[in-house]
Structure formats: C-alpha cells, structure tokens
Amino acid sequence: MTEGLTLVHPGPVAAERFTAVPCKATYRRVTLKAGSTLLQAMSDAAGDAGAWFDLLGLPVATLSFVRPAPAPDDTHVAWYSMTTTLSEAMILRAGAHLGRRDGAAFAHVHGLWSDSDGDQHAGHLQAETTVLSADCAVDVWLLAGARMESAPDAETGFTLFCPTCTEPVDLPNAVLACIRPNEAIEDALEAIATATGLPVSAVKGLGSLVGTRLDGQPGLDDHATEVLLTDNAERHVVSVGFNGPAVVGVLAKGANRVCVTFEVLTLSAPD
C-alpha cells in the first residue's frame, strides 16, 4: 500500500484525479537571449507552442522567487512567501512548463539557484521578472496538440495550470498531464501511462508534495514543499519547504503525495 501524508483542501474533491492529454513533443536546442526576461526569452523560442524547458547554468542579472509558506487563512492549505530578489545570480538547475494565462504567455518554474555569494536557494521562480545576463543555450521540448492553460480550481482554491488539447495529433509520443492533490506520485504516473496507452521513458515535471520523503536521508516535514523532478529514472528531486534550505535526493518509494498539483510531461521515446 502506498503511504504518505494527505491534506484536506477547502473545496469539493474532483472526481477525476488526473488530467492527461496525449501530444507530440519535439526536442530542440535553442538560445535564450540576454537582456530579456526569462518568460519573454522562452516565449520567443517557443512561439505559440506549449513547451517544457530544462534550464541549466543560466546567469541572470535579476532573479525573483518565492517559497511555499503557511496559509494566512483557511481558504487554502498553503500559500507563498514574500518575494526574494537576487542580483547577479545563477540558475543552477530549473525546469519550466510554458503555457498561457489570461491569453498571454505564462511559465511555471521550479528549481535551484545561487546568489552572488554562492549561497543556494530554491523554490518557485518568477520568470516574468527574472532577467538573463547572457545568451544561454537550453534544451526544450516543443509540444503539438497540448498546452498548459491556467484556470481556477475549485478543490484547492488556486489558479492552476491544466493541460488542454489544442489540436488532434497523429502518433503521439508524449503526454502532458497534471496530478491532483493527495495522489501518490508514482501511482499517478502509472495510471497516466495506462490510461493513455503510451509507455514512459522519461518524465519532466514540477509541483508540490505534502512533505518530501527521501530515500536514505532526511527530507522535509513542512506540509507544503515545492519540488522539481530532475531525474525520473532515479526519482531524483530538488525540494524546498517553508524556510529553506533545499534538499536534493531520491524520492522514497511509495511515500510522497501531491500537495496542490504536480505537472508532468511524460516522454515515450528517448531524447
């Protein structure tokens, strides 16, 4: 039996515990341009397509981020910290879903970065106010047939990314999905593969967990932790709670459940 902590959200529990849209993912190596916000640079690279970006070793002039925090009232199970802004920082490792909110480009970004003194921080990066200080080559998976779109969510009370179908595609090789609260992350990934009939060779994803339980090392006990999945084969993650610092390790098998949402792109063929 899968273990892991659960939470009671303020709204009605949705009947469907994940949303999954088969699509086509095409790998590209692209350059994000210096002087642009991270959001603008990713939008310029992807055009109107939804996309997943792997962001490794990006120098930035300005970087803004938040961490999870306790909720100020009972309308949500958790909230966000005050914004922290760093100057002359480095994005060490991050992942980003690029989609749409209110008709405009929007990105959901989690990861790990360092400040000008070399101290490390992690959380939810604000792509619209983070500015690149150099041209940066990055890996991107451009999507046809699916895109993340923001919409109010009755169960959690948040506005969340959810995959939507943009057009029919032949021979899909990927699935864009979101997993709902209290679902065991491993069980949900298996259910998505079964429901879509598409095998999984790799998973790109980010979201929140109810605490983070790691294999063979201390994790995080905060009831809301922000997570970036960095290596699906080894269940390797970066995670941060209310106060930091981040932990890096392998998810304990069968011990981690979704807090608010977990957004994934599953790939059916090797990169």
| SSE pattern | EHEEEEEEEEEEEHEEEEEEE
Helix-strand makeup class: mainly beta
Helix amount:
under 10%
Q: Average pLDDT value?
A: 95
How many β-strands, per DSSP? 19
* Major sheet attributes: 13 strands, antiparallel
The number of domains is: 2
Oligomer: single chain
- The fraction of residues assigned to DSSP E strands is over 45%
| C-alpha-based Rg, rounded | 17 Å
In CATH, the architecture of the largest domain is 2-Layer Sandwich
What separation lies between the terminal Cα atoms?
33 Å
Note the total helix count.
Answer: 2
Shape: globular
What does this structure look like?
This protein is mainly β and 271 residues long. The protein has 2 domains: 18-23 and 145-267, 60s Ribosomal Protein L30, Chain: A (2-Layer Sandwich); 25-142, 60s Ribosomal Protein L30, Chain: A (2-Layer Sandwich). It is 8% helix and 53% strand. Strand 10 (146-152) and strand 11 form a beta hairpin. The radius of gyration is 17 Å and the shape is globular. The mean pLDDT is 95.
Key terms for this structure?
2 domains; 19 strands; mainly beta; 8% helix; 60s Ribosomal Protein L30, Chain: A; 2 helices; single chain; two-stranded antiparallel ribbon; 13-stranded antiparallel β-sheet; globular; 271 residues
How would you briefly describe this protein structure?
This protein has helices at 38-46, 185-196; strands at residues 18-32, 51-66, 68-70, 78-80, 84-101, 104-114, 120-125, 131-132, 136-144, 146-152, 159-165, 174-179, 202-209, 212-214, 217-220, 225-231, 236-240, 247-250, 258-267. The chain is mainly beta.
